[in-house]
Amino acid sequence: MVAAVVAVEGEARATARSRFMHMLRVVVALVLFGTSVAGQDSSVDTFFREFGDQWVRRSPNLATSTRYFTGREQDRLERRLTPQSDEFAQEQRDLAQRGLTRLRGFDRAKMSESQRVSADLLAWQLQTTVDGDRYRDYSFPLEQFGGANVTIPNSLTVTHPMRTARDAENYVVRLREVRARVREALNAARSRANRGFIPPTFILASTLTQMRQFVGTPPAQNPLVTSFAERASTITELTAVERDRLRARAEEIVRSQVYPQWTEAIRFLESLLPRSTDDAGLWRFPRGEEAYAYHLRRFTTTNLTAEQIHAIGLQQVARIEKQMDDILRTLGRTEGSVKDRIARLRNDLSYPLTEDGRQQIMADIDRFIRDAEQRAERQFDRRPKAPVIAQPYPRFREATAAASYTAPPLDGSRPGIFQMPLRPDQMTKFGLRTLVYHETIPGHHFQIALAGEDPSLPKFRQARVFGTISAVTEGWALYAERLAAESGWYEGDPEGLLGQLDDELFRARRLVVDTGLHAMKWTRQQAVDYGIDVSEVERYVVNPGQACSYMIGQLKIIELRDRAGKALGAKFSEREFHNVVLSLGAVPLELLERAVDAYIAGART
After folding, report:
1. pLDDT in tens, 406-458
2. What is the DSSP string of 363-387?
3. What distance in Å separates the CA atoms of residue 118 and residue 460, rounded to the nearest whole number?
4. pTM across the whole model
5. Residue 389 forms beta bridges with which residues?
6. Domain ranges within the chain, ordered by starting residue
């Protein structure tokens, strides 16, 4: 009888707990996402939709990658490539300013909390665009990591849809625009160079190596042709004759238009070499310190100075290296620095540098993704419907590309895509699981694909129309790596746990190196000697501040989780905390903090 009474009381408590959690979810939804119509200002929703539409219409690449529109309008945009001219950038800046002016005209008191979050996010993004225009010269239009020579081929080979005969026809039409778009980027590069804004010698060299490789094969073997042929072969409504006709047309465009324009750009970059130096950071330019402070604000969404971020990095490096040293000693690896011991372990776990080795690493990545899917089912309430797949980068990008994630489009016509650069330094099992968790599950794929599938968010937030927020996007992915370790995903795998810690150490070193390069006059060699690969260092040179977003964002998410746990005690649910963070999508850290504080207040009642 006593046992029965205890069981009944336990069921009652469980029922009460269940009701409480249900009410909590309702409260969080109402506070954060405005699921109730009461208190909403429909006019601001109209503005969000119309202004987002206007912005996307100006960027065919964005419209294509997100499948933002439907019907004839989407089809029209999928036959275009986004302009690369300075005039286009100025028009974009002016549009952002007009959007800010209109946004300030809405009465915040009449908005729901969800609308206020969207308005604050949009205001932050548009102001960042306006502020950044004064530093446009500090970014070179042709470079090895994010220049037009990279983004244009990526838009065609990765994000262009290829499911229907019309898609194949549109691809070839877009291909005809490559020459004009690269010419625009080349003209903008000439303008920068005439004003003294020239990349470092080693950046020019890396870019030239990449661009020469791109045109170093017969046109039939260029990725713009081979990718098209491979993807078009799956379109059943295309006859073999039609496929061959379109492939031949793509090959002819590459031969007669793309290669000559690439060659002209190569000659121009070669002409800059005598005028370039090895000075790496933004400090080398007039107002360089001011420009770097802007980029730190843009990417970390904080007002932390370069000196403060540098100090944080040094503290985190010391903490993580101590943890790694302890694990290495348990494995009998006691000789040398942590850096040296990890280098030997990385080498010991290398894949063969052969075609078989390339197939092995991609098969292991697929296996890790499927395993992560099963583990995540037990830990997350919110998981995207869209699948995620992995594929290697095309050979011409291997030397300079970083592992990356491309989100599914809004219509679900393509999965999320994790791209892996299969160059020698990346061909190792060491840290591979952690990289997969970062880029796919429960990292980028969970956060970005979930936002795209959430109908409660304005479309501009679903599609990240005005850009991502690196501090939360990359911060979440780095947090996801830590979460996997905390949750026992590396149980019985000390080398795997070392890989997770090494990845976190890498992000801590980035804080030191990025600030070192751009604010403290570090050379590229100093950055390499500190423990960062050459291709990564060169990435930071052309993309200042972005490398700082990862750990600054991760530390903030951990801080907020700890705050919620301390405030709520037994009422704290890590799953609910993750629901709050993931449901918000990508926002500045200040807005994330506001949402978590609202969750804490709601859970306390």
Report:
1. 999 999 999 999 999 999 999 999 999 999 999 999 999 999 999 999 999 99
2. HHHHHHHHHHHHHHHTT-S---SS-
3. 9
4. 0.90
5. 417
6. 37-138, 153-278, 293-604
